[in-house]
Amino acid sequence: MAYHARYLHWAERARTESLRAIGLPHNLMIERHRALLVVRRVEVEYWRPARLDDWVVVETAILRVTGAQILLDQTVRAAEGAAGTPGERLAGLKVGLVCVGQDTLKPVPLPEPWRSVLKGLALPGTAKPAR
């Protein structure tokens, strides 16, 4: 079985790659604004274990963007060729991120264009902000 903390690693990698895919890599935020996104809160629910050497897919949905915070919903699914059924949910994560200053590690507003782009990608609805 895949170690339970591995899901956190997969989710982190998916968040990094998602930002890169929309042309707003995390390292650019650090270089230009001396700000970075850190995990403030994470909740994980496991439904079925991934097996060692299984391929997985991580789907990331933005639920809410406010001030310095982002609330995400991430689902880890079995990929084609995995031991389970392709697309089967393996785990779900609710992730609260906060933007902090690189030097102070205190919350700072999410810089542009990250804020407006991520807000534009947020799913419509009434998700509560990350606490």
Total DSSP E strands:
4
CATH architecture: Roll
The CATH class designation is Alpha Beta
Radius of gyration from CA coordinates: 15 Å
Provide the domain count: 1
The coarse overall form would be elongated
Structural class designation: alpha+beta
Oligomer: single chain
Average pLDDT metric: 92
β content, as a range? 35-45%
* Residues in helices, as a percent range: 10-25%
CATH fold descriptor: Thiol Ester Dehydrase, Chain A
Order of helices and strands: HHEEEEH
Number of helices: 3
Q: What is the straight-line distance between the termini?
A: 32 Å
Cross-sheet strand order for the largest sheet? 1-4-3-2
Poorly predicted residue ranges: none
Strand count, sense and barrel status of the largest sheet are:
4 strands, antiparallel
CATH superfamily placement: Hotdog Thioesterase
Overview of this structure, please?
This protein is of the alpha+beta class. The chain has a single domain (about 5-120), classed as Thiol Ester Dehydrase, Chain A, CATH 3.10.129.10. The protein is about 25% helix and about 35% strand. The chain has three helices and four strands. The chain has helices at about 5-20, 25-35, 115-120; strands at about 35-45, 55-65, 70-80, 90-100. A four-stranded antiparallel beta sheet has the order 1-4-3-2. β2 and β3 form a beta hairpin. The chain is elongated, with a radius of gyration of 15 Å. The mean pLDDT is about 90.
Keywords:
131 residues; alpha+beta; Thiol Ester Dehydrase, Chain A; four-stranded antiparallel beta sheet; 24% helix; fatty acyl-CoA hydrolase activity; YbgC/YbaW; HotDog_dom_sf
